[in-house]
Amino acid sequence: MTTTQDLPELLYIYDAYCGWCYGMSPVIQRVAQEYAGRITIGILSGGMITQEEVGPIGDTWEYITTSLRQVEQVTGVQFGEAYKQLGQAGTYVQNSEPPARALHAFRQLDPEGRAAAFAHDVQIALFERGEDLNAVATYEVFVQPYGIKADEFRRVYEQPGTATAVQQEFAAVSRIGVQGFPTSILRVGSQGYVLSRGYQPYDAFAQGLEQALQQAAEA
């Protein structure tokens, strides 16, 4: 019997604050359903907003609003009024590290490999409901339907080792050479196949995935 360790892995590299990743997320959710049993899905946080880039959303809101319109037109997702009000107020601090900590903590506590679904929840919390991704309490609400206790999640989230692991994750993404988000890579053994840089609709993405799987099988 084939185990999940033997299956090809779709490595989805995203950032919680990436609007195009929010547009790509429904595609990844569908891939997870359609390709269940054929591939596994791993997800890495890219660290789009870190260090000196961390700051109030108002500093870049004019640029963001232009991008939002493009994302909505191309992908069909909608950004919620609560998020737009957050941006217009301008004081909310964007920082990729806290949601990356949340994703890492979730991976440690979830044995079923549902990190892509959790990452989708994180983006809905921000881009639809305008919730605070800097607060651990935000995540505690939606880890519980996954069977994870809020206090256990907080414990792992706040561990010093989680902060270290997140920095290593950001560094690993940088070493891969990822220059933008989302990026999707199929890993089969020691081979890697770049499937997409940026958004792709499902049909185009699935076609590329099928081709990569076939190429890997013939290698």
Could you describe the 3D structure shown?
This protein has one domain: Glutaredoxin. With 219 residues, the chain is α+β, with helices and mostly antiparallel strands. It is globular, with a radius of gyration of 17 Å. The mean pLDDT is 95. It has helices at 19-34, 61-75, 81-89, 97-109, 115-127, 136-143, 150-158, 160-176, 202-218; strands spanning 9-14, 40-45, 55-56, 93-94, 183-188, 191-197. It comes from Hymenobacter fodinae. This is DsbA family protein. Residues 14-208 form the DSBA-like thioredoxin domain.
Helix content, binned percent: 40-55%
With strands numbered from the N-terminus, the spatial order across the biggest sheet is 2-1-5-6
Number of helices: 9
Number of strands: 6
| Overall geometry | globular
- Provide the number of structural domains: 1
Query: What is the class in the CATH system?
Result: Alpha Beta
Report how far apart the termini are: 22 Å
Unreliable stretches, pLDDT < 50, 5 or more residues?
none
Largest beta-sheet characterization:
4 strands, mixed
Chain-averaged pLDDT: 95
InterPro entries: DSBA-like_thioredoxin_dom, Thioredoxin-like_sf, Thioredoxin_CS
Keywords: Redox-active center
GO molecular function: oxidoreductase activity
Domain DSBA-like thioredoxin: 14-208
